[in-house]
UniProtKB/TrEMBL annotation:
Necessary for normal cell division and for the maintenance of normal septation. GO terms for molecular function: GTP binding; metal ion binding. The keyword rRNA-binding does not apply. This is Probable GTP-binding protein EngB. GO terms for biological process: division septum assembly. Pfam families: MMR_HSR1 (PF01926). The keyword Magnesium applies.
Length: 193
């Protein structure tokens, strides 16, 4: 199902989007690999644009898995080299995309498994909790983590930090395309429920 995902729309105006029946939204710090995770998840190379330069994704990019079932790629947060005005625009875009649109959604917060969770991620999840929006964690770039640290440890630690259950934390490497079976199962369960 996910392999058939196609580009639907790019916009800065979330309220211009039609209504979905179900959507998963990828959010996270700039450069953690949100777009790469989407590509690996959909077993495609160039579905979402990837870049070595942080701040690549500037608009809300919507991909269609099937009719009105979406994967949404958001611009990353915490990118230092943006102006205050751009940060304000980002906040507005997030609020409109995540809070104001009354959709059936799950937010996947992508973090860098090597760097670990940051204050900005905690701010984001606190905000989601306030608005009762369900979220899960994807620890990407696991290929960068020393072999001495197990995926189980990464999951336990992240679950504790974010105040969620361990099954809500997924460990993947978009680069090596590892760990996607569990994540795919979780996403398909959501889309088919
Ligand atoms: N080592 C490693 N590098 C990765 C992995 N996933 C992504 N990258 C690299 O990380 C960089 C950023 O990837 P993107 O997918 O563009 O990240 P993003 O979070 O979408 O970035 P923004 O759109 O700027 O917020 C690229 O150089 C990727 O090749 C991974 O699993 N392991
Ligand atoms: Mg991106």
């Amino acid at each position: 199902m996910l392999e058939k995902t196609v580009f639907f729309r790019a916009t800065a105006e979330a309220d211009s989007l039609p209504k979905s029946v179900a959507e998963i939204i990828f959010s996270g710090r700039s450069n953690v690999g949100k777009s790469s995770v989407i590509n690996a998840l959909c077993s495609q190379k160039n579905l979402a644009r990837i870049s070595k330069t942080p701040g690549r994704t500037r608009s809300i990019n919507v991909y269609s898995v099937s009719l009105r079932k979406w994967i949404v790629d958001l611009p990353g947060y915490g990118f230092a080299r943006v102006s205050l005005q751009e940060k304000k625009l980002w906040n507005k875009m997030m609020e409109e995309c995540i809070i104001k649109r009354n959709s059936n959604k799950t937010v996947y917060i992508v973090i860098d498994a090597f760097v670990g969770p940051t204050e900005l991620d905690f701010d984001m999840t606190k905000w989601l909790k306030e608005y009762n929006i369900s979220f899960k964690i994807i620890a990407n770039k696991c290929d960068k983590v020393p072999q001495t640290i197990s995926e189980d440890e990464i999951q336990s630690k992240a679950a504790e930090c974010f105040g969620t259950d361990k099954p809500n934390v997924f460990t993947v490497s978009a680069k090596k395309r590892n760990g996607f079976n569990k994540l795919k199962t979780d996403i398909l369960k959501f889309f088919n429920s």
